[in-house]
Amino acid sequence: MATRINKYLSEVGYCSRRVADRLIEEGKVAINGKIPEMGAKVKEGDQVKVDGQRIKKSTKQKIYLAFNKPVGIVCTTDRRVEQDNIIDFIKYPTRIFPIGRLDKPSEGLIFLTNDGDIVNKILRARNNHEKEYIVSVNRPINRDFIQSMSNGVEILETITKDCFVQQLGAKKFKIILTQGLNRQIRRMCESLGYRVQSLKRVRIMNIKLDVPTGKYREFTKEELLELNGLLENSSKTFD
């Protein structure tokens, strides 16, 4: 059975499909010595290489980490481009990659794994998986701000989905999103005349942030069981 090359690289735990697509576009992937087109498929017995390195299906145990990303660390696996990257910071002994991202000025919970299948299910926007954030802005917020954020804000030529927003202090609020547009919370605030001072993600689905800044832990068996239950009916990216 043939598998799309981006899916193959994801399933063997090399990288996410998004990163795989970029590597293919950059001509860094080869199938049987030839540079493939986007959407090319891998068959049993084919030889796949990335940057000249042979890629094989891993028999290693799957890894799931909850990491408290500090401000200033970049969620990329490309260590040549970004010195302050998440992989060099964590120094985990085997290959892992982040699920999604938090931008450089943001902090808080991010998952890392070698399981490409779970990456695609969590990142798929239509699966409506909750992510919770605590945000501080540069000036006092009011009821109009909370209602506007809750009911949707026009950014990036679209209207954001309805979401839960709760005021926590004069300049602080909690927001729970089920979509992940680029720099979404910062753009939402900017469109209403506010500037984000600090942004921390404190929950992804059923897993809460409970480790110090710069530290990580493995998912508990109970967390992984519940997470898989929540993902059971989730769509993957298209094959």
Task: Explain how this protein is built.
The protein is α+β, with helices and mostly antiparallel strands and 239 residues long. It folds into three domains: 3-55, Structural Genomics Hypothetical 15.5 Kd Protein In mrcA-pckA Intergenic Region, Chain A (Roll); 64-124 and 210-231, Alpha-Beta Plaits (2-Layer Sandwich); 130-204, Alpha-Beta Plaits (2-Layer Sandwich), CATH 3.30.70.1560. It is built from seven helices and 16 strands. The strands form four sheets. Strands 6, 7, 8, 9, 12, 13, 14, 15 and 16 form a nine-stranded mixed sheet that branches. Strands 2-4-5 form a three-stranded antiparallel sheet, with no helix packed on it. Helix 1 packs across helix 2. The longest helix has 11 residues, at 221-231.
Tell me the radius of gyration.
Answer: 19 Å
The CATH class name of the largest domain reads Alpha Beta
The fraction of residues assigned to DSSP E strands is 25-35%
The largest pleated sheet is described as: 9 strands, mixed
Give a concise summary.
The protein is of the alpha+beta class and 239 residues long.
